[in-house]
Specification:
- This protein is α/β, with parallel strands linked by helices.
- The chain has helices spanning about 1-15, 50-60, 75-85, 125, 130-140, 155-165, 205-215, 220-235, 270-285, 290-300, 305-320, 350-375, 380-385; strands at about 20-25, 30-35, 65-70, 95-100, 100-105, 110, 130, 145-150, 170-175, 185-190, 245, 250-255, 260, 265-270, 325-330, 340-345.
- A six-stranded mixed β-sheet has the order 3-2-4-8-10-11, with helices on both faces.
- It folds into two domains: about 1-20 and about 270-330 and about 340-375, no CATH class; about 20-250, Rossmann fold (3-Layer(aba) Sandwich).
- α7 runs antiparallel to α8 (about 220-235).
- It is built from 13 helices and 16 strands.
- The two termini are about 30 Å apart.
């Protein structure tokens, strides 16, 4: 029960610290953009170099610090990813865009540098780059992460590898595999898992062309952008290609936020429904009242804060239903080792006055958590080593 209460307190702090919207602020937004066209051991791709150059230019206009790489071999890709990872410390938003060849082996996604041969199964360990390496680097540092992967093109190098793997060739899948992400990350693929994307007939691939068209639309959050991209790509490819994404973002993400209200750049003009939702959430998020949280979920079952509200509600229910149980114990054991032998005692259920006092303590705790986070930064990690 003590652990449950601790998690409840930490969740309270999270609800205060998490913003309802995420902005790609110029001073804290970093992007890595790579486009590989000139493959040495496969036919050249028409569009990736253009796709990357155009997306990089757009992101710079939107205020991102951009690391850009075109036609990178394995060494250059490694160096670019390392520089990108080093620049992510403390940033709010991170974006990765990749256009070029990719493949999946045993449901693991790989990005292919221009010098890859993939003539033997061993080459998989040394000539290509796992997508999750980049994803982990982003999730370790940035608060919000977005990955755009236009790497599902028909890949002759994947067929070369499959032939080299012989009886294990079935491990080499078609297109890219579906991916999952940690909280705060969205991964967007140019087509659905296991499908092949088109390179395009014009300057850009269908996916990159649609992304260019919509990414800077003022007031459109990322969800709206990706819906528009999907619709454009489906139309352009006669439904042969359907962009797909996996999202665990916890707030709306904007590349170009809505127009500021009353001259205050930090105040976003929301529509009436969003304003109503935000007002209700602000009134219930630190109330510690199960009925109030249920009211929010009944009114906005798919709201921006619905997942956090459900988590908060579960913790409150466990706490209340447990009757305020407190676990006590004593340390024992030899050879310098400690063990914990729990005993239990039941405390009276908290009444209205106790609940008000606890709520004040939660508020004080969340404020203190925010102060520690702002003042100490990475000191906690250094001290724990």
């Amino acid at each position: 029960m003590r652990n449950s209460l601790l998690r409840f307190l930490l969740l309270s702090a999270l609800l205060v610290l998490v913003p309802s919207q995420l902005r790609a602020a110029p001073e804290s937004a970093v992007a890595l953009v790579i486009g590989n066209s000139a493959y040495r051991f496969a036919p050249e791709l028409r569009n990736p170099r253009n796709d990357a150059a155009d997306v990089a230019a757009l992101l710079r206009k939107l205020g991102f610090r951009v690391f850009e790489g075109l036609d990178l071999d394995k060494s250059a890709m490694d160096n670019s990813i390392r520089a990108f990872a080093d620049a992510l410390v403390g940033v709010d938003s991170a974006v990765f865009f990749y256009a070029g060849h990719g493949l999946q082996v045993s449901e693991q996604n790989y990005l292919v540098p221009v010098d890859a041969k993939l003539a033997t199964p061993t080459d998989l360990d040394f000539e290509v780059i796992r997508l999750d390496v980049i994803q982990r680097a982003m999730e370790r540092s940035a608060k919000a992460n977005v990955l755009f992967i236009d790497a599902c093109r028909d890949n002759p190098l994947a067929r070369t590898l499959a032939n080299a793997m012989g009886t294990r060739s079935a491990q080499v899948g078609r297109g890219m595999a579906g991916s999952t992400s940690s909280l705060g990350t969205l991964i967007s693929f140019s087509t659905q898992p296991g499908n092949v994307a088109l390179d395009g007939e014009g300057r850009n691939s269908p996916f990159a062309a649609a992304l260019k068209q919509h990414i800077a639309n003022p007031g459109d959050d990322l969800s709206t952008i990706l819906i528009n991209v999907r619709n454009d790509v489906v139309r352009a490819t006669a439904a042969q290609q359907v962009p797909w994404e996996h999202s665990s973002l916890w707030a709306r993400f904007y590349f170009s936020p809505p127009a500021a209200a009353s001259g205050n750049a930090d105040v976003v003009a929301l529509n009436q429904e969003q304003q109503a939702e935000q007002a209700l959430w602000n009134s219930v998020r630190t109330s510690g009242d199960r009925a109030a949280l249920r009211t929010y979920l009944d009114r906005f079952p798919q709201g921006s804060h619905a997942v956090l509200a459900k988590m908060f509600l579960v913790r409150l229910e466990r706490w209340d239903d447990g009757g305020g149980q407190r676990v006590a114990g004593s340390r024992q054991g030899g050879d310098g080792q400690s063990s914990f032998s729990p005993t239990s005692e039941r405390l009276p259920r908290a009444g209205p006055v106790d609940r008000m006092r606890c709520q004040r303590l939660y508020t004080q705790l969340t404020e203190r958590v925010q102060q520690v986070r702002q003042q100490c930064g990475t000191l906690r990690r250094d001290l724990s080593r």
